[in-house]
Amino acid sequence: MKKTESVTKTSAPSFVAFFLLVLLAAIPITGCRSGRHTSDSQLRQIDDMLDSQLPAGTSKSKVSFYLSSQGFQLESTNDPRSLVAIVHHVDTETLRPTTARATFHFDASDNLTTYELATAPGSGSQP
Q1: Which residue has the higher pLDDT, 87 or 29?
Q2: Which of 72, 77, 119, 121 is the most exposed place for a label (fewest CB within 10 A)?
Q3: Distance (Å, rounded) from C-alpha 75 to C-alpha 84?
């Protein structure tokens, strides 16, 4: 009977360690997404759209082509490693139009590193 107790005592810490390992491994699967480019929940669908269509590493020419082909207005910028566009989208949950000012940042090789989204003036008045 003493052997049973010692087996139980030694397996308890390994069970706890296993449980913690499984818990930590499950965090990325549960949708903890730190890659958001805005904290504004109204711009979530725009963020999801741009994130899926323009992943990091996309060339500046492809980003520019995508934005133009979608009819998004490009704004002039003094930074040669940035593109700024006004992005319009109709939120499929609320059916309200949203408008974001997207600033795309590129590395020395003209590949997309990241982008930022902010609510643009006139948001809600443009489709």
Answers
A1: 87
A2: 121
A3: 5
